[in-house]
Write a structure and sequence with these properties.
The protein has 226 residues and is of the alpha+beta class. The protein contains 4 helices and 12 strands, in the order αβαββββαβαββββββ. The strands form 2 sheets. A 10-stranded antiparallel sheet has the order 2-3-4-5-1-6-12-11-8-7, with helices on one face. A hairpin with a 4-residue loop joins strand 11 and strand 12 (213-219). The longest helix is centred in the middle third of the chain and has 18 residues, at 111-128. The chain is globular. It starts with 15 loop residues before the first helix and ends in a 7-residue tail after the last strand.
Length: 226
């Protein structure tokens, strides 16, 4: 774990990954993985342009089935403690638009890694994305022993000044418990509207009997089930 000390700056200059990592640190959670995903719809002209660029600099793998054509690109650049991949999806149905997805992920966080991540994200945005892109940030963490979800929720609400908080509890079986927390903070611009209310944070707390407890924090929403 490491300590974030924020300099005097407007919050627009602070990345969501830092805020989420601060939440995990304040609750004594251990980071297992972090994932940042950029997504944007493309025109056919953009697809060809980007494929040409990728094929010049990286190895491109093509996978095709009846519904989509997918191109997978692994960045060969040497980036400390993080991986960068790209994926271009082209639906076989011309009524749907192609999409570019860029993923940055790692298993460790430090001030140096966060600084490097900012540089990588800036480069990717400038090279391949516009202001129409959507950014998704996720941090997967764990803790030995039981997580006090009420205390966690209160601490997170205080740090992010959360509004519209709702909680969903699922007991799948005797040994597994899952709690999902939704909320909204004005500190981040990224958001979804659900039932006319903004939403930009989702937290899943999982408790497995006799195992580490897991906390997954995502903004504006988690892309996949855990």
């Amino acid at each position: 774990m490491f300590i974030f000390i924020y300099p005097e700056m407007s919050h627009e200059e602070i990345y969501e990954l830092e805020d989420i990592a601060k939440i995990a640190e304040d609750n004594n959670l251990t980071t297992e993985e972090w994932i940042v995903t950029l997504k944007e719809k493309l025109s056919n002209e953009q697809v060809q342009k980007y494929l040409t660029t990728f094929q010049k600099e990286h190895q491109v793998k093509k996978v095709e089935d009846k519904s989509v054509i997918k191109y997978f690109i692994n960045s060969d650049d040497e980036i400390n403690d993080m991986d960068v991949t790209y994926e271009i999806t082209i639906p076989q149905d011309s009524n749907h638009s192609p999409e570019l997805v860029a993923t940055i992920k790692g298993t460790h966080l430090s001030l140096a890694i966060v600084d490097e991540y900012k540089n990588v994200l800036k480069y990717i945005r400038n090279q391949f994305f516009t202001k129409k892109s959507r950014l998704f940030t996720c941090l997967i963490s764990s803790k030995d022993g039981k997580i006090a979800s009420d205390d966690f929720s209160k601490n997170m609400s205080k740090n992010l000044k959360l509004k519209y908080i709702s909680t969903q509890t699922d007991t799948i079986n005797e040994g597994f418990y899952q709690e999902t927390i939704y909320g909204y903070t004005k500190l981040w611009n990224n958001e979804f509207l659900i039932e006319n209310k903004p939403l930009n944070i989702q937290v899943v707390i999982q408790r497995h009997k006799n195992e580490k407890q897991k906390v997954i924090i995502g903004t504006p929403i988690l892309l996949t089930e855990y």
